[in-house]
Specification:
Length: about 110
C-alpha cells in the first residue's frame, strides 16, 4: 500500500519545514507528502514549493483562495488518489499531530 500524508497548510511558513523533515523515513522512501497551501497570506506557498524542490516525496498544491480545512483535505486526498495513494494519514502543518507517527497511523488500515 502506498502511504500519502496529507498536510493542510494555512499560515504555516514557520512550521511546515519542521513537519516535512519530521516525517518517518518510510514516507520519504516509499510514500509521499502532499502539502496543500490553502490560500495562505504568508509565505506558506513559497515554503511548500521550496520543500517540493528539495524533497522528491513532497508535493505542493495551491489554492488561490482559502477553502477552509475541509477543502484543503479534499484537495489533498484527490491529489493523493491521482498519484496512486492508498492510505492517507492527516498531519497538521503546525505539528499538532506528531509527524513522526504517520506510519503508525497507517498500521491498522494496512493490517486489515
Amino acid at each position: 500500500m502506498k502511504r500519502c500524508v496529507v498536510i493542510p497548510s494555512y499560515k504555516a511558513a514557520q512550521t511546515l519545514r519542521g513537519v516535512i523533515e519530521s516525517l518517518p523515513r518510510e514516507i520519504a522512501e516509499e510514500g509521499m507528502a502532499i502539502m496543500v497551501n490553502d490560500g495562505s497570506p504568508d509565505e506558506t506557498g513559497q515554503v511548500a514549493d521550496q520543500l517540493a524542490a528539495e524533497y522528491p516525496f513532497a508535493i505542493a498544491v495551491h489554492h488561490p483562495r482559502n477553502r477552509g480545512y475541509g477543502g484543503a483535505l479534499k484537495t489533498g486526498l484527490k491529489e493523493g488518489l491521482s498519484r496512486g495513494g492508498d492510505v492517507f494519514p492527516i498531519v497538521h502543518s503546525d505539528g499538532q499531530y506528531a509527524p513522526h507517527m504517520a506510519v503508525e497511523l497507517c498500521a491498522p488500515i494496512e493490517s486489515g
